[in-house]
Amino acid sequence: MRRILAILMENEPGSLSRIVGLFSQRAFNIESLTVAPTDDNSLSRMTIATIGDDKVLEQIVKQVNKLIDVIKIIDITDRQHIERELLLVKVTAMTDKSRNEVKRITDIFRGNIIDIGKQVYTVQLTGNAEKLNAFITALQHETEIIESARSGCVGMARGDKALRI
Amino acid sequence: MTTELFTGAEMVVKSLSALKVKYIFGYPGGSVLDIYDAIFQQDEIEHILVRHEQAATHMADGYARATGEVGVVLATSGPGATNCVTGIATAYMDSIPMVVLAGQVATSLIGNDAFQETDIVGCTRPIIKHSFSCRSLADIPDAISKAFYIASTGRPGPVVIELPKDILIPQNKGPFSIETDIKIRSYNPNVNGHPKQIKKAVQAIARAKKLVIYSGGGIVLSDASELLTKLVETLKAPITNTLMGLGGISGTHEQFIGMLGMHGSLEANKSMANADVILALGARFDDRVTNNVEKFCPNATIIHVDIDPTSISKTINAHIPVVGLVEVVMQQLLDELSDINFSPDEVALTLWWQQINLWRNVKSMSYDQAENEKIKPQRVVEALYKITQGDAYVCSDVGQHQMFAAQHYPFAKPRRWINSGGAGTMGFGLPAAMGVKLAFPDKHVICITGDGSIQMNIQELSTCSQYKLPVVIVTLNNRSLGMVRQWQDMVYGGRHSSSYMESLPDFVKVAEAYGHVGIKIDHLDELEEKLTQAFNIKDRLVFVDVMVDEKEHVYPMQIRTGAIDEMWLKKGVKA
Ligand SMILES: Cc1ncc(C[n+]2csc(CCOP(=O)(O)OP(=O)(O)O)c2C)c(N)n1
Ligand SMILES: [Mg+2]
Fold first, then answer.
1. Which ligand has the shortest distance to the CA of B477?
2. B49 with B27: CB under 8 angstroms?
3. Is B153 within 8 Å of chain A by CB?
4. Which atom of ligand 1 is nearest to the CA of B451?
5. B227 C-beta neighbours (distance < 10 Å), count
6. Other Cβ atoms closer than 10 A to B488
7. CA–CA separation, B528 vs B268, rounded Å?
8. Of all helices (H) and strands (E), which one includes residue B214?
9. Could you give the C-alpha distances from A55 to A61, B312, B314, B435, B496, in angstroms and in order?
């Protein structure tokens, strides 16, 4: 089952490699991983999307927690949470028809065309993984995707719950 | 007023002094010459020069296992540091507190494939508890102080500190201060067991009719054997130890039913298999214990006490997990037992012990020693026990001899049995014994080894001459990689692929060449006499090369893929 883990850790050189190393060392799965410093620059926050059964998840959470740099890890999957990912996608937009279709689909998904070339559009979209997947499929029906880049998801619990020290 | 300024190298030594370090085990090289220069100019810390960095790590490890202190290693960058990898892995697997100071090329050169540059922090990342990459002078005292704290608290383990050359050199100086009262916001190991879990555990124990206590290395590491003995005597239940846990309770205690697992006693494995409640204390349900996890103790309620949450329910699901320091949790259990006025169910206990005694009577560790035949390896261990009256530090290598030692030397006290259990590192025994001897010069320190293992760090005989470390080396010489051959006999149709040690050296002469005493024992009737003679030589290292029966296998032995108690007692004889 797919799980979203939010991790708060020391913003120090080597912290990221410890997490990544742990996942490969113990044969845990990483679907996506994002990391950046938080408002408090001494801390980094990471979101990992992973797949595993309850037993594997329990081990992942415990093993990550055991890393000296890690302050907290929570599994936000089961609680009410917000999950967002950013997609940049460059598509062929040569004919009027394809230009219109790309514009239309982008509007439906509430994305933005953020750059145009001679024969290409670059579109930006945020949402959860499912929405991004659906958008890509819709685009593929109407035009050709030249390149795409996804950020991997970031997540946060809804309401008053917070991951902080 | 001007503050005194120090070089990074001086700071390394001053930090170690502040942390009361007595010995550093190491080997010099370009990147750490400044540290060596600083060591030369002080006399609080003694540096022990090994002959191979791997041995430095094992020596520090043996020292740590015997004393409970942090073992300290110093190695140069590149090959010096990579030579430490096996020793770091060995310490990691057995949760031994160790700090490894590794040199590194200058910060300006890092990443350039400079001479003797290896990313040692990267190399060791999966086998350390934590690591520090110092990048400035000011990082040094803090990293060392934190490393010691991390290595020795919670579940202990090795910590690596990388020290680039340019922060050690004399041109670069700074003020020195060290904080030894460490707090790390992201690291707060558990101490107390959760009171609710303690209550649950005691309820399960009180209901048990067939309780078994299964204790491991955690008891030894946390010096909790007195409390364990008290708990065991309160519960009146049988206790078994893991390979790492031997000595956690006296090997001659009447409630002790032997080691469990692959080469454990029949009574220990049978008791586990038939238990209704298992109280696991500082043990981790290693695969060398459980055998097939699918078939593991199906009827038992498992109470698992461990400092490391990741050890709980990793291989075997725990019904009642308790995370905490094992000595604290045992005291909590004792308090709760006394709160409920616990007294064991005598009827159930009598039946349980009757059953256990039937298994005991099988005498699964027995072996046949005919008078005029080759010496059985087990007999050598028994003789060592007799001569040292169970009070020696026994360091072992890896193989059949290790199992024979574990089976036939009942340890009276913790920290006396020093072996590489988790990693199974051949070459561990001699340097580990040297570390122990350094700490306890007046005690008997034996290295029980094999003709294969001893050759993996035999160069340390030279270090023994230099520092006058009169350990007693006893080789159970079966002219083969015995444990490998045993598996080949049992699993690979007797095809002895590369398991012979052809062209063995004359170990007596090897010992003598290094300035030690060598004794060869060929016949049973000279065994005790010559061994006694070896122990009577107090001021010199004695290398006793005992020719043992090369055909002997280690029994009993769990049957692969079977349950914990499915065992071969002898060739072709199942329990
Ligand atoms: C460094 C290392 N390499 C290989 C092994 C695999 N191994 C385990 S036991 C053994 C044989 C050991 O031979 P010896 O030291 O003579 O002991 P014996 O089994 O004969 O008593 C080997 C090769 C190991 N444990 N460690
Ligand atoms: Mg051998």
1. 2
2. yes
3. no
4. 16
5. 20
6. 18
7. 30
8. strand B211-215
9. 10, 11, 8, 40, 41
Nearest to B547 by CA among B519, B571, B570: B519
| Partners of residue A59 in chain B, C-beta under 8 Å | 310, 314
B162-174 pLDDT, tens per residue?
999 999 999 999 9
DSSP state letters, B329-381: HHHHHHHHHHHTT----HHHHHHHHHHHHHHHHT-TT-----TTSPBPHHHHH
Does any domain span residue B472?
Answer: yes
Q: What domains lie within chain A, and their CATH numbers?
A: 2-79 (3.30.70.260), 82-150 (3.30.70.1150)
**pLDDT bucket at B1, cuts 50 / 70 / 90:** low
CB contact under 8 A, B310 and A62: yes
Half-sphere exposure of B296 (CA within 13 A, CB side): 19
Band (pLDDT 50/70/90 cuts) for residue B501 is confident
Q: ω before B344 within 30° of 0 (cis)? A: no
Measure the CA–CA gap between B281 and B283, rounded to whole angstroms: 6
CA B481–ligand 2 middle distance (angstroms): 4
Q: In angstroms, what CA-CA distances link B559 with A68, B259, B261, B272?
A: 39, 16, 11, 16
Do B212 and B339 lie in one domain? The reply is: yes
Torsion of CA B522, B528, B534, B538, to 10 degrees: 180
Average of pLDDT values for A159-164? 91
Task: Give the pLDDT band of residue B461 (cuts 50, 70, 90).
Answer: very high
- The structural domain count of chain B equals 3
In sequence order, the 6+-apart residues with CB closer than 8 A to the CB of B3 are B175
Is A66's CB within 8 Å of B309's CB?
yes
One DSSP character per residue, B113-171 reads --TT---HHHHHGGG-SEEEE--STTHHHHHHHHHHHHHHSSS--EEEEEEEGGGTSTT
Counting every residue written for chain B, the total comes to 575
Question: Do residue A17 and residue B129 have CB atoms under 8 angstroms apart?
Answer: no
Q: Is A13 left (phi over 0), alpha (psi -120 to 50) or beta?
A: beta
Interstrand relation of A43-51 and A32-37 (parallel, antiparallel or unpaired): antiparallel
Which structural domain, as residue segments, surrounds residue B464?
377-551
Pairing of strands B256-259, B71-75: unpaired
How, if at all, do strands B211-215 and B23-26 pair?
unpaired
Q: What angle do CA B65, B237, B96 make, to 5 degrees?
A: 15
- Give B355-402 pLDDT, tens digit per residue: 999 999 999 999 999 998 999 999 999 999 999 998 999 999 999 999
Residue B391 covered by a domain? yes
d(CA A131, CA A84): 10
Which CATH number does the domain housing residue B60 bear?
3.40.50.970
Query: Phi, psi at residue B409, to the nearest 5°?
Result: -120, 95
Is B458 near ligand 1, meaning CB less than 6 Å away? no
Number of other CB atoms surrounding residue B217 within 10 Å? 25
pLDDT at residue number A146: 97
Q: Is A42 on the interface with B (CB under 8 A)?
A: no
Q: Measuring CA to CA, which residue among B130, B138, B326 is closest to residue B228?
A: B326
Neighbours of ion ligand 2 (CB under 5 A): B 450-452, 478, 482
Same-domain pairing of B474 and B541: yes
Q: Do B186 and A58 touch (CB under 8 A)?
A: no
Gap from CA of B401 to ligand 2 centroid (Å): 8
Query: CATH code at B211?
Result: 3.40.50.1220
